[in-house]
Specification:
alpha+beta, 4-stranded mixed beta sheet, 6 helices, 12% strand, globular
């Protein structure tokens, strides 16, 4: 069977890797293509995206080339491993909005939550661009 979704994940993120290990274990029919953005040979340019794009939120790509981001990536991953009924619940109004909001908080603070802060990544109240400019 062909893959149904490609996930671009941060292999240097301990929390992210727990999820990826679980998905790999559940993906018995190999419906997910896993791409580690922290790998030495990963080049965001080949996907016409920046590394910052990939670091800011999870990205997925469908077999037809369409890109998905955020919670929709997780929906597609869980559907690919057979958890369709769970995925359907995540589309219910209210639940959907809550998941989107929760993911945005996580994505914005992922490096802090996983102990990987640096001067440009974890300044409170500034964007990474502003932080980078301030550091120069």
């Amino acid at each position: 069977m062909e893959w149904r979704v490609e996930v671009f994940f941060d292999g240097a993120c301990p929390l992210c890797m727990r999820e990826i290990r679980m998905l790999r274990w559940m993906d018995r029919q190999q419906r997910i293509r896993f791409t580690d953005i922290s790998a030495d040979d990963f080049s965001p340019d080949q996907f016409k995206r920046s590394m910052q794009d990939f670091m800011d939120e999870i990205h997925g790509r469908l077999p037809d080339g369409r890109w998905i981001t955020g919670v929709e990536v997780f929906r597609r991953l869980y559907a690919a491993v057979g958890l369709g009924p769970l995925v359907a619940l995540t589309r219910v109004p209210g639940i959907s909005h809550g998941l989107d909001a929760g993911y945005r908080v996580f994505a914005k603070n992922r490096l802090r939550f996983t102990g990987r802060c640096d001067a440009s990544a974890c300044n409170i109240g500034t964007s990474s661009t502003e932080s980078s400019n301030a550091a120069q």
